[in-house]
Write a structure and sequence with these properties.
The protein is mainly β. It is globular. It folds into two domains: about 150 residues, Beta Barrel (M1 Pyruvate Kinase, Domain 3), CATH 2.40.33; about 90 residues, no CATH class. The chain has three helices and 21 strands.
């Protein structure tokens, strides 16, 4: 089994970037979801409400992020010089401080999405805890602006299984994983408890619950209809605590941050669930 894809999404819900290698940090892969767009009250934006966000493409440059929208583009510097104030932001059940961007950057995004918004960046000293119920190190594991966990992994075999049931196959980017592995059985990742990729050990802590974002064509920024959720609901639906959840992919927490992972790295299952 090998690592076949590495993806990061520096600005939450905007276009992703495919990489050949990445450093695994405590909060997730380097640069992954360290920025996000918020409204005037500091509440986060996602494709759920603004599917057009998918069409804003992001690339990594030496000195910052380059964001492109149709014929326009913007450089967001890594340097925090000249950045704005610290404000409280809200993402799901988490509230934390983040640093606002210059007005020109906020205006660019507001024009691109046709709604008032601000770009914020997670501070180095900001701490957003993983749900302690699923944390490896309770009250110590932290996460970026991702929905809840540092890393999302999916096996190529799982997508192939789903596509065999769909009239119109879909690409992996509908599920926005960080890591993709090949040469595993469909949904084998459901059975893993820990794996080693390169020199990094990851714990599989919770299945990923899928939402309407999976119906959004990531190239067009519009919903394709009810798929793949309609089909997934026929065989990947579980009921827990009175609620129905569609599961696809697994959330991971790294045991040892700081190592580099690369495409082609061996992915070795260390322990499976009983």
């Amino acid at each position: 089994m090998q690592l076949s894809e590495i993806n990061i999404y520096p600005i939450k819900s905007l276009g992703g970037i495919s990489l050949n290698e990445s450093v695994v940090e405590e909060k997730g892969l380097q640069f992954d979801r360290r920025w996000m767009l918020v409204d005037e009250n500091g509440k986060f934006f996602t494709q759920r409400e603004f599917p057009k966000m998918a069409t804003l493409k992001v690339s990594l440059e030496t000195d910052g992020l380059r964001v492109s929208a149709q014929n326009d583009n913007l450089l967001i510097p890594f340097s925090e010089n000249g950045a704005g104030e610290e404000i409280q932001v809200e993402i799901w059940n988490s509230k934390l401080t983040a640093q606002t961007s210059e007005n020109t950057i906020n205006e660019w995004f507001s024009d691109a999405l046709q709604t008032n918004c601000r770009l914020v960046r997670m501070n180095q000293n900001s701490s957003r805890q993983v749900n302690p119920i699923y944390a490896v190190r309770k009250f110590q594991d932290t996460v970026s602006f991702a929905d809840g966990y540092p890393v999302l992994l999916i096996g190529e075999g799982s997508l192939a299984d789903l596509n065999s049931k769909l009239e119109n196959p879909i690409p992996m980017n509908r599920f926005r994983p960080n890591l993709v592995v090949k040469n595993s059985e469909a949904f084998a990742e459901d059975t893993w408890k820990s794996i080693k990729i390169g020199e990094t050990i990851f714990y599989i802590v919770k299945p990923s619950e899928r939402c309407v974002m999976t119906t959004i064509d990531q190239a067009k920024g519009v919903s394709d209809g009810k798929e793949p959720l309609k089909t997934l609901a026929t065989y990947r639906l579980v009921k827990k605590d009175g609620a129905s959840k569609i599961l696809f992919g697994q959330n991971l927490i790294a045991e040892n941050a700081g190592e580099m992972i690369k495409i082609g790295d061996k992915a070795e299952v260390l322990e499976t669930k009983e």
